[in-house]
Amino acid sequence: MQLRTLGRTGVKVSPLCLGAMMFGSWGETDHEECVRIIHRALDAGINFIDTADVYSHGESEEIVGKALAGGKRDDVVLATKVHSTMSLTNANKQGNSRRWIIREVEDSLRRLQTDYIDLYQIHRPSPDTDIDDTLGALTDLVRAGKVRYIGSSTFPSHEVVEAQYVARDRCRERFITEQPPYSMITRSVERDILPVCAKYGMGVIPWSPLAQGWLSGRFRRGAEISSRRAQLLPERYDMSLPANQRKLEAADALGQLADDSGMTLVHLAVAFVMNHPAVTAPIIGPRTMDQLETQLGAADVVLTDDILDRVDEIVPPGLTILASDDGYDPPSITDKRTRRRNVS
User: Fold this and answer.
1) Domain architecture of the chain: domains with CATH
2) What is the average pLDDT across 200-220?
3) Strand 4-5 and strand 175-179: pairing?
4) Within 10 Å of residue 223's Cβ, how many Cβ atoms?
5) Whole-model pTM?
6) What is the distance between the alpha carbons of residues 238 and 267, in angstroms, rounded to a whole number?
7) Residue 166, Cβ neighbours under 10 Å: how many?
8) Residue 18 forms beta bridges with which residues?
9) Which helix (H) or strand (E) holds 98?
10) pLDDT at 344 > cutoff 70
11) Which residues have a catalytic role annotated?
């Protein structure tokens, strides 16, 4: 694979990033099989792995640590994330506070069997935490040698900009990457996030280029809608909902485009995300070896202008068919008190 530069760091990464969300109880429970999948990805040229503390409640990090033990660690750019709830009884075991970040990085290092993390990311914004407090804690970790670089994930564009200004004004380490949702049917990041990241020289590592399975090839007109994810989250795939019907129509049209172009829909979907000039490496998140093999070939796919124009006709640039697929609803949307003067 032809390597790309991660933002302005000078670090070279593969054009595909291996996501480890499906390793562990959320997906493949056989640790040895997960290790085999990771090793196959490394053998194929992937040198970039992304996980998070919350994935299978730490189990994913443990599996990645096992896979990289024995001399493979230094060959990999290793990324993980912090923010999500890690305890049902302790309200402070979550979020973006200095207290939690300084504590949780130690657990991630232990689970990953390493003494440093290449890219430590804040998994989601935390409206009740001053971004300066978060950046201050992350800066201390960089200076302590426990973290090399820091990044954000699923931040709205105004918070990406705010973090850059705070880092500059308070002499903090700055976010050098952003990890947004991006696919052929989830395109709102093209409006603001991707241009903002390009302006600030940030690497972009999009998650879910297959749109949570909608672009896997299984969702076509006349086909039985069945997937493991649909069983876990039935409301996200309820065909009685108009938005899901629109997603199915788009997935079917994109599938036909892939057929007409002599490629799989999976290759089209991943290559489309890779093609954006602001994108460094889309995250592929296989649960099985077969899923990994079907996605690896996307790194060699070249999309013509005619194909990209046709994608734009099916789903216009900047459009996300279902707004909740953008991955983060701020309190200004979810809390009525932010939108109405008199709410009890």
Assistant:
1) 4-338 (3.20.20.100)
2) 94
3) unpaired
4) 12
5) 0.94
6) 26
7) 17
8) 49, 284
9) helix 98-112
10) no
11) 55
State how far the Cα of 199 lies from the Cα of 220, in Å rounded to an integer: 38
Provide the greatest CA pair distance for the chain. 61
Cα distances from 305 to residues 15, 229, 310, in angstroms, run 20, 33, 8
**Phi, psi angles (nearest 5°) of residue 84:** -70, 160
The whole-angstrom separation of Cα 281 and Cα 17 is 6
Tell me the two tokens of residue 95: 């979020």
For the chain, list the strands marked E by DSSP.
4-5, 12-13, 17-19, 48-50, 77-82, 117-122, 147-153, 175-179, 203-204, 283-284
Q: Is 181 helix (H, G, I), strand (E, B) or coil?
A: strand
pLDDT tens, residue by residue, 57-78: 999 999 999 999 989 999 999 9
Return d(Cα 84, Cα 211) in angstroms, integer: 21
Give the residues across from 117 on adjacent strands.
147
β-bridge pairing 147-153 and 117-122: parallel
The residue with tokens 């792995």 is 49
Distance CA 229, CA 332 (A): 29
Give residue for tokens 């485009």. Answer: 257
CA distance 60 to 320: 29
